[in-house]
Amino acid sequence: MEQSFEEIVQFIQSRNVIQLGLENMKGFLTEIGNPHHKLKIIHIAGTNGKGSTLNFIREMLMGANYQVGTFTTPAVLSYEEQISKNKQPITKDEFTGVFQQLTPFRKRFEKREQVVLTEFECLTAMMFYYFANVQPVDFVLVETGMGGRLDATNVSLPLLTVITNIGMDHTQLLGKTKEEIALEKAGIIKPGVPLITTEEDERLLALFEKKTEQNKAKLYAYKENFSIETCKSTEAGLQMFSFISPFCKLGNLEISMLGEHQLKNASLALMVIDYLKTYQALIITEEEIRQALKHAAWIGRFEKLSESPLVYIDGAHNNEGIKALANILQKQFTEKKISVLFAATKEKEIESMLTPLYDVVHEISFTSFDFSRAARAIDLYEQSSFTNKKLTGDWRSEIKNKLSALSEDDLFLITGSLYFIAQVRAYVLQIE
Prior knowledge:
alpha/beta; CATH 3.40.1190.10; 2 domains; 17 strands; about 20% strand
């Protein structure tokens, strides 16, 4: 009996466990004809900024009329958006069709090897198959799920590898130091495949240099091989900057996404495009680049949901993300009284994570949400030393109450786990 889309999603999500390793992935991809070997892949790893960087690259490629596939996690708007072509999610019928086509192969493989493919492994295999056999594209931009070396996406020979930065996240699986985590991320580096990175820590760059040398691969590092300068804000609220690389210089570029970290993400994306133009015969004009950067936006990353009252959401789910968020608030919203609604997953170290916000915000409300790995609100509350804090049992009621009570001097910020932000975004837009 054929399953519905909803039944298939429920089945896949029942396998939501973290299982690092490539053997199952390689074996199953061989079972279905190695679809990933047919694709031109740009592989993106990093603690923060993967999604924004991917989005900048996608906007520029699409602006030049290329067909672009993307693989991003977790979902924000809909489950199927994780596999998208030209920003359009795989349809429910296509998702169902791909799953059903692969089901006999999966059952045979799992029975023979005595293994169970995880949710992420299932989605990764479906993504490769979809772009190779159902909706062919010119490029596929692939985010790692966690780490790099043992991530299920790390099975192909890409055109380029990209590492945004290294931060202290998922330490229970990736390592207790930045050096250990960097080695895991550097596991995506392949023989002869260039690495482009905006990581600035000299110790970590030394690890990347060693790894690229071992693989006879070129390294393009931020501030060494490409950079930005003359950054300023425009009257329209955009960020303006110039980009310099070994191949070109572009002045007065504009992006609408706020924060210094987004300037770095944009420069990383520009270096990717520059490389593809120089070595892969990519055809794109300067005007296409400018327009794409200016209009690029990324759902759930310091996204304004309401102007009056002023409400933002941001998937700042680790130390580096919160630091970047605090930086935006300090520079852009000094006149606002900021209240925060926060939820996270269980493995986070809340006190060190939230400290950058303590001098910036007025109040923090801790809550929980419907997710298997969500932390309890009371645990978050007790871990935080912030003075003006409170417990919120029902985040929906808290949002409703806040929206009715906010004044023009207030800013309501909802942040934390991307899984939480996905639920919040759908709810706020529904009641607006």
